[in-house]
Specification:
This protein has 288 residues and is α+β, with helices and mostly antiparallel strands. The protein has seven helices and 15 strands. The longest helix has 15 residues. It starts with 21 loop residues before the first strand and ends with a strand.
Length: 288
């Protein structure tokens, strides 16, 4: 059985508010959850770890990707275990098809099982939204940023994948705009969370990537720190925080992780640490 090791915590606690994340075990599967989202009382959610599944080798053990070379039957069993954690079944889960876009898709019960029990009928979808209870949104990660959105006024939710490209193009803001058009969501009513992903200390990027961030966000050492060798250290947590706050999310309703996927590579899949030899983590969000 794959056992988690002690966690390494990161993050600037002077700027992060309500950053604590719960690490718990349900159905013998360790999961991470945000207290702020739980307090809304209208959703179930989870962010997975590497433990609690049946995959082995570089995919050990809770791999939730059919495209990394893992045995498909193992991946399906892992999805079933996560469904049990959430009190549902895989026929109610709807998967994204991530290609680092800012495309957001509204899904319904008719989409249940997409990406698990049947092939995905869509492409290039990095964000999912719904207002139907019981539909479980699922997005996938191994260093990129999970973004959770809960609208308790209109009983609507969103879940998005935001890598550096998505962050430059403000995936968080785009998701909120889609929720506003679809459900009437007001940004000030949202409860949001920025999930486990790579931290600034671990995320070195080239000058051309840094220039895109500086053009999009403006000069900020907190966001993009230049190193002596011409590279930059990029803070995706801070960038997504700025995106959500500028989109109108109240700071008191925004919770930010302090868990880095790369620093915690034994507990969480990290593309950068493993040089691509890894499985996928997943974020799940559903209305009760």
């Amino acid at each position: 059985m794959y056992q988690l090791k002690p966690w390494v915590r990161n993050g600037d606690r002077e700027i992060l508010q309500q950053q604590d994340i719960w690490i718990s075990e349900s159905e013998c599967v360790p999961i991470l959850t945000f207290p702020l989202l739980e307090q809304t009382g209208i959703v179930k959610h989870a962010f997975t770890t590497r433990a609690g599944g049946v995959s082995s080798g570089e995919w050990a053990s809770m791999n939730l990707s059919y495209t990394r070379g893992d045995d498909a039957s193992h991946v399906t069993e892992n999805f079933k275990r996560m469904a049990a954690v959430l009190g549902t079944d895989i026929e109610h889960m709807v998967c994204s098809m991530q290609t680092h876009t800012t495309n957001v898709l509204r899904v319904t019960a008719a989409d249940g099982g997409n990406g698990i029990v049947r092939p995905l009928p869509y492409e290039d979808v990095d964000g999912l939204i719904t207002d139907e209870p019981g539909v479980v949104l699922a997005t996938f990660f191994a260093d990129c940023v999970p973004l959770f959105f809960v609208d308790p006024v209109h009983h609507a939710i969103g879940l998005s994948h935001s890598g550096w490209r998505g962050t430059v193009h403000k995936m968080g803001q785009v998701t909120i705009e889609h929720m506003k058009r679809a459900f009437g969501t007001c940004p000030q009513d949202l409860y949001c969370a920025i999930g486990p992903s790579i931290c600034q200390s671990c995320y070195e990027v080239s000058e051309d990537v840094a220039e895109q961030f500086l053009e999009s966000f403006g000069t900020s050492d907190r966001l993009c720190e230049k190193k002596d060798h011409g590279k930059y250290q990029l803070n995706l947590w801070e960038a997504n925080r700025q995106v959500l706050l500028r989109a109108g999310v109240a700071e008191s309703r925004l919770q930010i992780t302090d868990l880095c996927t790369c620093c915690n590579h034994y507990n969480l899949f990290s593309h950068r640490y493993s040089n691509g030899k890894r499985g996928n983590l997943a974020a799940f969000l559903t209305l009760k």
